[in-house]
TrEMBL record:
It comes from Nothocercus julius. Pfam families: Biliv-reduc_cat, GFO_IDH_MocA. Residues 128-205 form the Biliverdin reductase catalytic domain. Residues 3-120 form the Gfo/Idh/MocA-like oxidoreductase N-terminal domain. This is BIEA reductase. The gene is Blvra. One of its GO terms (molecular function) is nucleotide binding. Residues 114-141 form a coiled coil. Keywords: Coiled coil. GO terms for biological process: heme catabolic process.
């Protein structure tokens, strides 16, 4: 069995715990064993999963990989900590709040001979696969992708563009490398409203 720990208990972290404790029959998850979860809050147990300290998770020889589901701002430090401890890492996107930090983490994982995987489950859905089939072989003339969500705490989530980073991954996967040609941001703090509009160009313009 391959020992795991879940770090962070937001929506993604709770889903990880649920799926690790109830793996689909004949799926790779059946070979994973959840040894516990790490949280800043004192929670004790969740669905029979035991809370452990960060130090225990790093020290344990039974834990081979960490699933990181914390706030965006803490991803980089948490990844470094687990890689330094010799653990594989799966992290929810974005991996870091800068490209420089992300490249450094990739290099560190290679040096440690560990897997560092950024999770983007949407790319594996049937809906996305269908979309990819529909655009295959076609020339993009012009398109719009509209994404809505709640207003994020910038101190925890990072610059607002990160709330839509997953959709940028869609576009790059569908159409190749993109260049930002312009971007604007509108804010109405009294209404707790924020909107970012970005224009991109493909390699063949």
């Amino acid at each position: 069995m391959f020992g795991t720990v879940v770090v962070g208990l937001g929506i993604a972290g709770l889903a990880r715990i649920r799926d690790l404790m109830n793996p689909m029959p004949s799926s790779p998850s059946e070979h994973l064993k959840l040894f516990g979860f790490v949280s800043r809050r004192n929670l004790g147990k969740i669905n029979e999963a035991q809370q452990i300290s960060l130090e225990e998770a790093l020290r344990s020889k039974d834990i081979h990989a960490a699933f990181i589901s914390t706030e965006n701002i803490s991803h980089e430090e948490t990844i470094r900590t687990f890689l330094e401890a010799g653990k594989h890492v799966l992290v929810e996107y974005p991996m870091a709040l800068s490209a420089k930090a992300a490249h450094e983490l990739w290099e560190m994982a290679e040096q440690k001979d560990k897997v560092l995987h950024v999770e983007h489950i949407e790319l594996l859905t049937e809906e996305y696969k269908q979309l990819k089939n529909e655009v295959a072989g076609k020339d993009l003339v012009k398109g719009t992708l509209h994404f809505t969500g709640h207003v994020l705490d910038e101190k925890q989530a990072g610059f607002p563009a990160f709330s839509g980073i997953a959709r940028l991954t869609w576009l790059v996967d569908l159409f190749g490398d993109l260049t930002v040609t312009s971007a604007t941001r509108e804010e109405q703090k009294e209404k707790n409203y924020s909107r970012m509009t970005a224009h991109f160009q493909t390699a063949n313009k």
